[in-house]
Amino acid sequence: MSYIETIAPEVAEGEVLALYQRQQAHFGYLPNYARVFSHRPDVMASWASLLATIRRHVAPRRFELVTLASAQALGNSYCALAHARALGELLGMDAARDVVAGEASSLSDVEHAIMAFARKVACQAPAVTAEDIEGLREQGLADDEIFDIVAVAAARAFFTRILDGLGAEPDAAYRELPEPLREALTVGRPIARPATGAAEQALSGSGR
Known about the structure:
Blueprint: H1 14-27, H2 32-36, H3 41-55, H4 60-74, H5 77-91, H6 93-101, H7 109-124, H8 130-138, H9 143-165, H10 179-185, H11 198-204
Helix pairs in contact: 3-9, 4-5, 4-7, 4-9, 5-6, 7-9
């Protein structure tokens, strides 16, 4: 699941146990990314706070489009799978598949421009020019909206580099996505094999 040893759910205590329990309550299982933060749960808490602050200013559809574009450009399977699934919940899975394939006629010109800009920020930020910003203004975006796009893409770069730098594999639950979409989104590390469930059972049965 990762290249570092993480704290097992059955021995987790304090902040780590609280982190694990929150994540399991939300997803119905303990995601692999939560485990890699087990040595620094305060960093996970800070990340969650930062992300919530950024998201507060961005409509859900735009947030998911920018995040998906950034994750794909960064070569991170985990976030590409997660946010394509979230986009599917907003637009429908067929529409999400078209977005991933670059065939989304349902997207506006400004949405296509936003996604292209997000890819550039995520992987080639020093190459961003004043002309790139002016192009977004010509699409009708205000400067605060442009800031938000950059913030979403930059934040995703932080998170994906932690996951990939530590070898975290996307959760086995993503195997449930339609095969064409799953294959298109596995742009980096492969999806984890299904677990036995023993660790999750130990966590949910913990009385601490």
